[in-house]
Specification:
Length: 429
């Protein structure tokens, strides 16, 4: 997520291998002010304005800097729509804040960055060497102690903490996020267990931010327990705005169409965690299937000719799913010809206690299709305080000499919810 002036401003960032989809794509401008508004809106106005302003202000130049170091950018068009659905007559309207990704997703990003490190001089990578504790004298950090198989090794010099939050630690998730969070699936690395975050607090770093909050998203019910590099991000299930999201009791529990998914997926995953057995189903009919992201092809859906049959196959008892769908269908607009999955189309329900604010298509074209989903945690929001030079700040409000931090390790950026892609930019800046 970065600030830009539209497609012409983005094209110079793109790798030549990805230029093919440019004529099939459209992107409106994404201003500095709108970026800040999106972060503050999703964070209920709590995000640190000084730090956010730096991230947003340096976002475009950081994209160019990464390009110059070999990171390959592409338009995210094929993330949202299949290749055979593209047309130059009607270019696909990409969300301005989520228009660009790396070629080959996260694998491509880390491959490109490791290549940049290996091409540079004076940088050594040490494997099987987890950081164990900080070497400190008062508030000054002198170095880091590293744990090896049969010994400790000490390194002296300034330390940059970039080892993430505690999303891979079931113990810390339960302690800070609450009941049931120890059981969720981990979307990313199994190594972010909060070890150095805890160590930073031990030597006097100031805790800040939403320690009871996290980025959690709907993932396939059969997703692996922890991130799997072989399948990358293909388990995410983000097309729920175009159908209904129901729990084990056959009831809706969120406004599926509140906004585009990039503004709601992080809190929707948490909402699923609050349901019985952390289980939900995304339900679609044939009218909406074309709008599903291509990644849905990696999961076998539950299919039925009637809602009653679908209910039975999903293990939902009591006929509540039928009642939910009937009540929902009665509340949908009479004319849904304006349905547009690329924008917030204003097709809203009327009269429902829990509305659906956009994309309110009736479910009336069988066969019906359901994808069971659960909660996958991405990263945690609580962290340590840094100043405008990324120096870690101690409990007395003073920078700690020799200690810096970046990325998920840092707090005071995100609260409650999240605008997709802004965490990647925070770490990059």
């Amino acid at each position: 997520r970065f600030a830009h002036d539209g497609l012409e401003h983005i094209v110079p960032l793109l790798h030549e291998s990805s230029r093919e989809v440019v004529p099939y794509s459209a992107v409106g401008p994404y201003s500095h002010e709108r970026y800040i508004d999106d972060i503050q809106e999703t964070s209920a106005g709590r995000a640190n304005p000084t730090l956010i302003d730096i991230v947003v202000g340096e976002s475009y130049d950081t994209m160019a800097w990464m390009r110059d170091h070999g990171v390959k950018w592409e338009l995210a068009t094929l993330k949202f729509v299949k290749r055979d659905q593209l047309s130059t007559d009607h270019p696909y309207e990409l969300p301005p804040g989520g228009a660009v990704r790396t070629v080959h997703d996260g694998i491509g990003l880390t491959d490109d960055l490791f290549a940049a490190v290996e091409a540079a001089e004076g940088i050594e990578i040490r494997y099987e060497s987890p950081a164990h504790e900080l070497i400190a004298d008062g508030s000054t950090v002198l170095g880091v102690r590293v744990r090896r198989g049969d010994s400790f090794e000490e390194f002296y010099g300034p330390v940059i903490l970039a080892s993430g939050g505690f999303e891979a630690s079931p113990e810390m998730r339960l302690r800070y996020l609450g009941e049931g969070w120890d059981l969720v699936k981990v979307r990313g690395t199994r190594f972010n267990k909060g070890v150095m975050l805890t160590e930073a607090l031990r030597v006097g770093a100031q805790a800040v931010g939403h320690w009871g909050g996290c980025h959690a998203t709907p993932v396939a019910g059969d997703a692996p327990k922890e991130g799997d590099l072989a399948i990358t991000d293909e388990t995410g299930r983000h097309s729920y705005p175009y159908g209904l999201l129901v729990n084990k009791d056959g009831r809706r529990f969120v406004d599926e169409g509140e906004r585009q998914y990039l503004y709601t997926y992080a809190k929707t995953g948490a909402a699923i965690r609050g349901q019985r057995e952390a289980w939900a189903a995304q339900v679609f009919d044939q009218r909406a299937l074309h709008a599903l992201q291509p990644r849905y092809s990696t999961q076998t859906p539950v299919v039925a000719d009637t809602i009653a049959e679908l209910e039975a196959k999903l293990g939902i008892a009591g006929g509540q799913l039928e009642r939910t769908v009937e009540e929902y269908n009665r509340s949908t607009p009479a004319d849904v010809s304006g349905f547009d999955p690329a924008v917030e189309d204003g097709l809203a329900t009327t009269g429902l206690p829990l509305p659906k604010s956009n994309w309110a298509l009736p479910l009336d074209r069988p066969p019906f299709v359901a994808y069971p989903v659960t909660t996958g945690i991405t990263f945690t929001y609580g962290g340590i305080l840094v100043d405008t030079d990324a120096r870690v700040v101690d409990n007395e409000g003073k920078p700690m000499p020799g200690l810096f931090a970046t990325g998920e390790m840092t707090g005071d950026f995100f609260y409650h919810n999240y605008a997709g892609g802004s965490g990647l930019m925070r770490g990059a800046v």
